[in-house]
Design a protein that fits this description.
Oligomer: single chain
Number of helices: 16
Distance between the termini: 56 Å
Helix content: 25-40%
Strand order of the largest sheet: 1-9-8-7-2
Structural class: alpha+beta
Shape: globular
Largest sheet: 5 strands, mixed
Bound molecules: dioxothiomolybdenum(VI) ion
């Protein structure tokens, strides 16, 4: 880092820095390293799982699918880069930064610099996108802090330039995945196996791409395994729906192949393989709620699935080959303990404070809605303050747990606030009704303002989920549909429409939830058709490290997107009866695109992304 008075000075000076280094040998190729991959220590999830006897069940199954898929390294490509302004004065370090997980990152700052919690403050009220790239502390925060210290505490601002993000921060690692399904002639699964290989730097973790295969379909004999190879590439880490986002790109194409071999309609095949409990653990571990079949049925109706011709390459309109595809959506529903502080002032205005972040997801809105409803005040009387490490610790934004967990924490704080205000007003809180800015009980009313008193009332509360995750399997479900046109002459793919039906508990806000799902579907289309960080095998870095050459879908790429939410209240998941939805939309979306391309052309590509060169090669082979 070079620190200067202006950006231009700093940049000019940085170009004068000459770096000399010795070249060593590195390992950059996952396929070549697959054989030295090892079973990693259990981190986020155990590396292996099994039930019954997979080998025996698969061996005797009348129908077998055994396919290997690859997915490349992906870049988060969020709009806002990692950026921090820091001041480090009088042993106090303040970081105004862009971060999804305030409490985690404050802990990392303390550990990195040997500081006590009271010496550090992180403030991240707005985050311009993250997708997992900002779950952890990155070089911008460390550099800005050290920079400020070096110049006596003046503010130092650093934004990591876009071309440095893929190679100097984090990405979703590439995978090789083998899926084996053993089924009856009726398509009912008896044995299912999913193995995934990925790479990372020493000390890193695997891409947990087999996760969904542990819970999505029935079958007595099962196995999954994640293996990790040490690679000398930039750090691999979480990117939107780590695990399922790429795992379903493999599993759901294998399911499409099973449907074709058995002659069972792909919707019917998935319905036949539904299971209402965790299939690895047995009927003693039911799902907290699971409206998977409803998603398939309602989604198929809305999309017009009955108009699909199952014969590949049979529908043509001028030069366009038309195809339809379906894929299941699945994403685990995680929940994290989450706290909040609620203040009611002498005017009856409400302020909510929590270190929850809003990464473009609408946290401000749903938290304000929760507090307004709980305390019976109009939305305009609620102020929400987020992202400050001085506020109570929340679950943060990650793994699609943010909305459900943080609003449940605000709910808990509001329950405590209602108790306190009722007490102040001389009411029993059980009988008190909070409505229209008043507390009413036994025919008597007191305004919120009076109950709060002259100096106002401030109460903290917290939701704790205890052993909920042990009692219930928890996940969100859906069905993705896609219609594509493939140019019969050039191999160009056009997504004509994407559609999907999703069940994720109570939808806290239909507009923000829909935005999240549409964003996920778009990202899934990107993974199917264009997204790929290309490794330079000589030097072990990503060549296409900017938005000009790392292609992501834009509005013109997808003409029509439709989102249906299946009615569901999950009374086990949280007092909000909600689940996560922010990552569900990406999970399976790309497989629906791949399956639509197969239906249009008869070309099955198992190495993502499905670019024109691969489609043309398929056309030449089929010709
Ligand atoms: Mo998500 S990849 O946990 O931000």
């Amino acid at each position: 880092f070079v620190i200067a008075e202006t950006f231009e000075q700093a940049r000019a000076a940085a170009h004068l820095v000459r770096v000399d280094y010795d070249r060593g040998k590195g390992r950059f190729d996952l396929a070549a390293a697959k054989d030295i991959a090892v079973k990693p220590p259990g981190g986020f999830a155990p590396p292996d799982s099994k039930a019954g006897d997979f080998a025996a069940g698969y061996d005797k199954a009348p129908v077998k699918i055994d396919r290997t898929f690859t997915t490349p390294d992906h870049s988060h490509a969020m709009m806002e880069p990692m950026a921090t302004t820091a001041t480090w004065t009088d042993d106090r370090l303040t970081l105004w930064t862009s971060n999804q997980m305030i409490a985690w990152s404050k802990g990392e700052v303390c550990k990195t610099f040997g500081l006590k919690p009271e010496q550090v403050r992180l403030d991240s009220p707005y985050v311009g996108g993250g997708f997992g790239a900002k779950l952890f502390l990155r070089a911008d925060a460390v550099g800005a802090a050290l920079g400020s210290k070096a110049i006596g505490g003046r503010a130092v601002k650093i934004a990591i330039p876009r071309p440095m993000i893929p190679n100097n921060t984090t990405h979703r690692p590439a995978t090789i995945q083998r899926v084996r399904i053993g089924a009856g002639k009726d398509g009912v699964i008896a044995a299912i196996g999913h193995e995934s290989w990925s790479g990372d730097l020493p000390g890193g973790g695997p891409e947990i791409a087999a996760l969904q295969t542990r819970q999505l379909y029935r079958g007595a004999d099962r196995m999954t395994a994640h293996r990790l190879a040490e690679l000398d590439l930039p750090e691999g880490n979480a990117m939107r729906a780590p695990g399922e986002a790429v795992g379903l790109l493999a599993l759901e194409v294998a399911m499409d192949e099973l449907a074709e071999v058995t002659g069972v309609d792909p919707i019917e095949l998935r319905i036949r393989n539904d299971v209402q409990y965790d299939p690895e653990k047995g009927p003693g571990t039911p799902f907290s709620s699971r409206k998977f079949v409803e998603c398939l049925r309602q989604g198929a109706d809305a999309f017009g699935w009955s108009r699909r011709n199952p014969k590949p390459g049979a529908v043509r309109n001028g030069r366009w080959l038309i195809g339809m595809g379906v894929a299941s959506a699945f994403r685990g529903n995680l929940a994290g303990d989450s706290g909040a502080r609620v203040s009611v002032d002498a005017k009856g205005k409400v302020t909510v404070e929590t270190d929850m972040t809003d990464i473009g997801t609408g946290s401000y809105t749903i938290i304000a809605q929760t507090a307004a409803e709980m305390l019976g005040v109009p939305l305009k009387d609620v102020t929400v303050k987020l992202g400050d490490s001085d506020f109570p610790t929340s679950a943060g934004s990650g793994g699609q747990w943010g909305a459900n967990s943080s609003t449940a924490g605000v709910y808990a704080a509001c329950v405590a606030t209602r108790d306190k205000l009722s007490q102040n007003a001389g009411f029993n809180s059980k009988d008190a009704v909070f409505e229209g800015g008043k507390i009413t009980a036994g025919g008597k009313s007191v305004s919120l303002a009076n109950a709060a008193g002259k100096s106002g009332t401030t109460v903290e509360g917290k939701i704790e989920f205890g052993d909920l995750a042990k009692k219930y399997a928890q996940a969100t479900f859906g069905a993705h549909f896609c219609e594509v046109g493939v140019d019969a002459l050039t191999g160009e793919v056009r997504i004509r429409r994407q559609s999907g039906a999703f069940a994720a508990g109570r939808i806290l806000n239909p507009k923000s939830a829909r935005n999240q799902v549409i964003g996920g579907m778009t990202m899934g289309a990107g993974a199917a058709l264009m997204e790929e960080l290309v490794v330079d095998p000589r030097f072990g870095y990503f060549v296409n490290h900017d938005m000009a050459e790392y292609a992501v879908p834009v509005h013109a790429d997808i003409q029509e997107q439709e989102v249906i939410f299946v009615e569901e209240l999950d009374d086990k998941s949280s007092p909000m009866k909600a689940k996560g939805v922010g990552e569900l939309g990406i999970c399976g979306a790309g497989a629906a695109v791949a399956n639509a391309i197969y239906n249009a052309t008869g070309i099955r590509i198992r190495d993502y992304p499905l670019t024109i060169d691969k489609i043309i090669a398929g056309m030449n082979k089929n010709a």
